[in-house]
């Protein structure tokens, strides 16, 4: 059941001729299929350059050129097509963008099917030391649990998410706003080259496309749709990462936020989402796995404080300890009375508590050793 | 409709003879009144020192002594009795403690009626600089809004909550686990003395009582019950402040948490409560007021990022700007095409954007100025 060539070529034409995140075209494709969608769009309409742009595409040549560069074009019907993208219903839009892309351009050996269990880890470009550290710890845990990490290949949190996953031997994929053959930002040249060679770089934009603001916004919906949930590590109040979280929310995926200091600029957007109840707090990779797993999988042991010496005391010792005053010493009689224990029992317990350095005998009676 | 003297004296006896947070006695008082509760408890029972302890109390003398020290005993039926304490139903228990106290010992001129609009601000004794700063800012806002701050008079967050409220000219009350005439911890001598002289210090324990662990746990329910909500600024996983939050939760009061760094020991308990969905994120005093206010009162303006120069652009300028590439420059024709605008219009917009330093003309065309 392979995809008909005409359909694949029509999708190449749409991918090259239509800007990403165009819900109208996506809807048309859904209704009448890609071949007819191209045909009907080739009729010039006033105030629209669409027909001319589609006319200018040579899909066969595009596909050949891409293949020569080791880039494949994955479309609905291909075994590698990520089912999550079909959730990008045309009714779901954010800032004017929406719709299923006509196809995905992919460079790299990793099959997109591996993304079925993936998590998006995104955040500010202007990351803080705290954000970087949290991203690194989270991604190391995800990598060691075999969960692929998807991010946007940008500077800051994105870079660290990819990098930390790689260092921990995990799988990670960058979803770009430009063509998968382009390097943006230039500082991430080595990372992007490594991903394109060893794992995968993905874009709905055809090879050669430049990154523009709208393409970043359109791209964000793919990051949310390709993954089971989005972890927002750090984001200022107007960070683009919040847009990705918005997409995850619209698609009913888990939105997970790492809380941060209220006083940190780069945690304001994150804390605001938590305040609005739009995201779940995560403080560790294991909590991400618990949220995303099947019921009963990856259950997290509730965090507890360290065990204290107090926990190891006998019932009688504890009962006595409860009534030893913090400041002014008390007599054995009084402690026995309050503890509802015999004096002899109380004295024994006090002596054992003294040996364990919980209490001490001072002039005037027994009192707690400070800080127990 | 003043409280009968016999009833008040019976409550003094119960307050002096029964350890705080004893739900059984509280239930008895609710069912048969304080006078009969004392009478029925005076019958000695095996394994219980209660009868002997009650027998030993001289309530008239206790009351006289307290009054000589400027301490009053407020009981249900007094105009000053805080209605919130009646919510401490005997069915509500936490770690074995519960029940309405027989009365409150109060030192200081501030009437407890002023607590009707109060907020509890609590947290770790081992506070971090971050926690201290957040407590200070929150309490300054509450003070300047006329909202009294209740806390436990302890070191750390409690101290800062009282202190910052006082510095900002606000009202604040300490609820203690020992008698209101005692100074615990000793380091807070000046603070506690100031509160007892100018505002109020409150305890269910009679004057002279020492602070013990159970009394701290019992005390926490009063902090929660006396206030409209509890703000937890910082708390480690086993902090006593979480016990106060637990009481606020049981009493269906608002529990508000200030999120903190996951890497900070003193924010672990707070972040854990947020993760469990048991508390609302607050990042500013205004958000506390909004949560506690009547519907429509104290509405918070949603935090927004700073206005950016981009926000002031015209529609056409924005439309053009959207299509100016980040990296590789683009020709005017291409930008006009993508923007669906005439070339002349596009050039005009590009020139204005250039003057505003959004874009620049390079060899090869227009591109964005980095970081816009």
Please explain how this structure is put together.
Two copies of one chain form a homodimer. Chain A has two domains: 67-292, Rossmann fold; 309-368, Arc Repressor Mutant, subunit A (Orthogonal Bundle). In chain A, helix 1 crosses helix 4 (59-68) and helix 5 (129-144) runs parallel beside helix 6. A nine-stranded mixed β-sheet of chain A has the order 1-4-8-7-6-5-9-10-11, sandwiched between helices. A two-stranded antiparallel ribbon of chain A has the order 2-3. The first copy, chain A, is elongated. The first copy, chain A, has 14 helices and 13 strands. With 372 residues, chain A is α/β, with parallel strands linked by helices. Chain A is 41% helix and 12% strand. Chain A starts with a helix and ends with a strand. The interface between A and B is large, with 59 and 57 residues.
CATH topology name of the largest domain in chain A, in short, is: Rossmann fold
The total tally of domains of chain A equals: 2
CATH architecture of the largest domain in chain A: 3-Layer(aba) Sandwich
Which regions of chain A contain 5 or more consecutive residues with pLDDT less than 50? none
Structural class of chain A: alpha/beta
Q: How would a crystallographer describe the biggest sheet of chain A?
A: 9 strands, mixed
Beta strand % of chain A: 5-15%
